[in-house]
C-alpha cells in the first residue's frame, strides 16, 4: 500500500496524462471505428437474441450479401441481414427467397414463414434490401413502405457477438 502511494505521488502527472489519453482514445475508437449495439428485438432470432451485445464496425466496405448490418430506417437503428444489392432481382415465394433466380441457402432461418408473402422486385441501384432471420417476427423490407435502404443509412457491420466467455464471429 505504501508503494502504491509513493508511486502515485511520484508519477501523478504521468498517470493523469495517461488516463486522459486513454479516455480520448476510447472516445475516438468508439465514435469512429466501432461501437457496441444491443439487440432490441427478436427479429434476428436464433442468430441473435434480445439483449445480445454486438461489436459493430463502422467500416462497412465492402457490403457483403449475407452480412449482418446496423442501419437507420424511419429514424430507428435496426439490425438485419443483407439479402440483395442494387440491380438484384428478389423473389419470395412459398417460404423461399430467390436472388437473381438462385434460391438462397439460409441455414440461419430456423422456422418457415407462417404468413404467405409474395415478393417480386428489382432492387434499385445504390439501394439495399434487408430481412430479419426470424421471418415470423421481423419488421423488415417485406413490410416497409420504403422497401430499400440507402448506403448512407447503413451505420455498421456486426462483427462479433460479445459474450465475455465466448466470442462468436458473425462474418
Question: Briefly, what is this?
Answer:
By secondary structure, this protein is an alpha+beta fold.
Overview of this protein structure:
The chain is α+β, with helices and mostly antiparallel strands and 171 residues long. It has two domains: 32 residues; 135 residues, Umud Fragment, subunit A (Ribbon), CATH 2.10.109. The protein has one helix and twelve strands. Strands 1, 2, 3, 4, 9, 10, 11 and 12 form an eight-stranded antiparallel sheet that branches. Strands 7-6-5-8 form a four-stranded antiparallel sheet, with no helix packed on it. A hairpin with a 2-residue loop joins strand 6 and strand 7. The longest helix has 31 residues. The model has no long low-confidence stretch (mean pLDDT 86). It catalyses: Cleavage of hydrophobic, N-terminal signal or leader sequences from secreted and periplasmic proteins. This is Signal peptidase I. It is a single-pass type II membrane protein.
Cα-to-Cα separation, first versus last residue: 47 Å
Tell me the CATH superfamily of the largest domain. Umud Fragment, subunit A
Radius of gyration: 21 Å
Tell me the CATH architecture of the largest domain: Ribbon
Low-confidence stretches: none
Q: How many individual β-strands?
A: 12
Q: Main sheet, how many strands, which sense, barrel? A: 8 strands, antiparallel
Structural class: alpha+beta
Beta-strand content estimate: 25-35%
Enzyme class: hydrolase
EC number: 3.4.21.89
Family: Belongs to the peptidase S26 family.
Domain Peptidase S26: 15-159
